[in-house]
Design goal:
The structure is a homodimer of 343-residue chains. The first copy, chain A, is an all-alpha fold and 343 residues long. Chain A is built from 17 helices and no strands. In chain A, helix 9 packs across helix 10 (209-236). Chain A starts with a helix and ends with a helix. Chain A binds chain B through residues 46-48, 50-51, 102, 105-106, 108, 124-126, 128-130, 132-133, 135-137, 139-140, 142-143, 146, 148, 151-152, 155-156, 158-159, 161-163, 165-167, 169-170, and chain B through 46-48, 50-51, 99, 102, 105-106, 108, 124-126, 128-130, 132-133, 135-137, 139-140, 142-143, 146, 148, 151-152, 155-156, 158-159, 161-163, 165-167, 169-170.
Chain lengths: 343, 343
């Protein structure tokens, strides 16, 4: 596995250098994931044809399915033998997809860059409404599991995600955003769903309370690590591997940890650069390269990844509560996969 | 009460001519509604201050609170003695408010008319996200009632509302929209929540299945009647009493029953007028008056209101299953209030 020291450069290692960390989990619950995908297709159905059209544009585009995989993995870890984990995993993916659809609308600058996001193809209105539909579908699926505790966990996570997104909106374009405020945003907008995805996998298996808490903490720390790596990749990834444009956050003035660190450690001239490009959004052709140079100078990417490694370690530790075995190894490998991933 | 014949003119009677139909229900459950309002304020709270700010802009703006009133009234009708109907009524209002926030974003032309909608004051992004938050809060409230059946009813209603909104998006600006397609849209986008609001009031009181079904049908028919009157008022109301602009639907090219009827009964020249103003949205200063004139000529408003009266009668009939008394009278009066309302 690529070490954090190796990752400290402004460019991350290629996929070839990373352990295939999701493969273990896929080997263990691949059959279940197939069932999840079938459930997703089935549940996207609506008599209003535009709904499955738009939803499948995003859902079928693939993605890592990391959140439903976590639900399946957690259920496996807790020895679950029933079939409801499949419904739950589909439900987690629906909540995630609804969030993405609304994000694409909220994130107006995505509209300007020629990416074929759903809102570009079908308009903002349809994206908002289909997001609402998927969100409602998620709750219908939860009702089918027949467990109020699970509904509570996912309703709480959904409220927290929305809070985190609003918080992110408030901190956007403010270069003086503190590291704590940033961590607060990513804990809410990203880690809350990772955390809930893991906990419900245990709860459906009727695991002891201590294990449910450990799964929740595992998910939260993994989620924070995941977003930290995402935010580093937005400045440091190989564009082709990333599958989206490098520099999206920069163009939007989204204040992530790499910017916070480079700004805090920067000279007055450098801070003026960040304020111009990130607060006023007054950007010139070479500004992204300039930003990447400043991040390299101040070790901003390396330290963001170091932070991710730290949260990854915390996630690892939570797994100690569970018996050793394939499922535990597979979930541990997801943490390592995240630390080493390049897209 | 103003009769349908009286309502047949292009202008509706003033409030003074209508029975104070909500007063009976308010007299019966006014104390509960006070508790609902307190619950709403309490549950809008978030550590992210923008959320209660934006939400209260809409929630505290008043409105008739007709949906939560229906939940309270249905619970009363079924002899409910507990306190969970207050949570449920708040939850119904949250779902409604979330829908309104997203509607304001979807309904782009509202942005152009100087109304201080939440999206105008705080932007589309915040409106989408706060809508998501309120929707999540609604499900958190439902979990607190501890009844999966209720969660199922409201999750189904939410999915149906979203389907209806997408359907409305598809039929917008299409003057050839059939009456059936229009009824389909309003059944989903409006009547589904009226219907669920009534049913959950009975279910929380553990009423017999036949009564729950009757409440659902009462709500559905009342909801359809409510939307029909709304759509008539958008062309025929006294602007000051309506509290929003007359002609909103016209300016947006929203194809409602008055337009469908006037188009169907119109000459070729008149149809060309509707296609120009509603499909191409090519509108001139006197076009709204022209539209109102054509509706008067073809009895389009009168017949829309006649249709509302019909669904009102269907709603009335569902109440026969319940014992006579104050609660039944109060719910019957809501139907009459709707038929006679001017805003």
């Amino acid at each position: 596995m690529a070490t954090v020291t190796q990752l400290g450069a402004a460019r991350l290692p290629t996929q070839a250098g990373a352990k295939p960390g999701l493969d273990k989990l896929l080997g263990l619950v691949g059959h279940d994931l197939e069932a999840v995908n079938q459930e997703i297709v089935k549940r996207m159905h609506s008599r209003v044809a535009l709904i499955p059209q738009l939803a499948s544009h995003l859902v079928s585009a693939g993605g890592k399915r990391i959140r439903p995989l976590l639900t399946l993995g957690a259920a496996k870890l807790c020895g679950y033998r029933g079939g409801k984990h499949v419904l739950l995993a589909a439900c987690v993916e629906f909540i995630h997809t609804a969030t993405l659809l609304h994000d694409d609308v909220v994130d107006e600058s995505d509209l300007r860059r020629g990416n074929a996001t759903a809102n570009q193809v079908w308009g903002n209105q349809a994206s908002v409404l289909v997001g609402d539909f998927l969100f409602s579908r998620a709750f219908q699926l939860m009702v089918e599991t027949g467990q109020l505790e699970i509904l509570g966990i996912l309703a709480n996570a959904s409220a927290t995600i929305a809070e985190g997104e609003v918080l992110q909106l408030i901190t956007a374009n403010d270069t003086s955003t503190a590291e704590e405020a940033y961590l607060d945003v990513i804990s809410a907008k990203t880690a809350a769903l990772f955390s809930a995805a893991c906990r419900v996998g245990g709860v459906i298996a009727e695991c002891p309370a201590a294990q449910a808490d450990a799964l929740e903490s595992f998910g939260r720390n993994l989620g924070i690590a995941f977003q930290l790596v995402d935010d580093a990749l937005d400045y440091a990834a190989d564009q082709a591997a990333l599958g989206k444009n490098v520099g999206d956050d920069f163009r939007e003035g989204k204040i992530t940890l790499p910017v916070i660190l480079a700004y805090r450690r920067g000279t007055e001239d450098e801070r003026a650069f960040w304020r111009r490009t990130q607060e006023k959004l007054d950007q010139r052709p070479d500004d992204l390269e300039q930003a990447q140079g400043l991040m390299a100078k101040h070790g901003a990417i390396a330290d963001t990844l170091e932070r991710a490694r730290h949260y990854g370690l915390l996630a690892h530790r939570e797994l100690a509560l569970f018996p050793a075995g394939e499922a535990r190894e597979a979930l541990a490998a997801v943490v390592d996969f995240n630390t080493a991933r390049t897209h």
